[in-house]
Amino acid sequence: SNESGIYQAFLKAIAERNGSILTINQDIPLQGLGIGSISFETKDLQGSLEDLLLDIRSMKGIIKVEILGQA
Questions:
Q1: For residues 16 and 1, what is the distance between their CA atoms, to the nearest angstrom?
Q2: Can you tell me whether residue 71 is helix, strand or coil?
Q3: Contact at 8 Å (CB) between 49 and 65?
Q4: Which residues lie closer than 8 Å to 53 by C-beta, 6 or more apart?
Q5: Residues 6 or more apart in contact with residue 42 via CB below 8 angstroms
């Protein structure tokens, strides 16, 4: 969704769990949808990655969350 504050909400969720943001890429919103990707370090993550992803998926305006790769 192209709703204001969506990035801010899930960046806050990552930061609150000690995730370290590495990159943020955002495309131009088309037809009311904004598409983006965020890479973040999970080494010091508090709680499980699965719980964090569930929290992000439940946020208003989030349509899809997926893991693209893990190191």
A1: 23
A2: coil
A3: no
A4: 65, 67
A5: 19, 49
Dihedral over Cα of 47, 43, 13, 39: its sign: negative
H-helix or E-strand spanning residue 53: helix 49-57
DSSP-assigned beta bridge partners for residue 20:
41
Torsion of CA 9, 60, 4, 46, to 10 degrees: 10
- What is the rounded distance in angstroms from the CA atom of residue 24 to the CA atom of residue 34? 13
Report the C-alpha gap between 51 and 45 in whole angstroms: 11
> How far apart (Å, rounded) are the C-alpha atoms in residues 18 and 4?
24
Task: Measure the CA–CA gap between 17 and 19, rounded to whole angstroms.
Answer: 6
Residues of the chain whose pLDDT is less than 50?
none
* Terminal-residue alpha carbon distance, the chain: 29
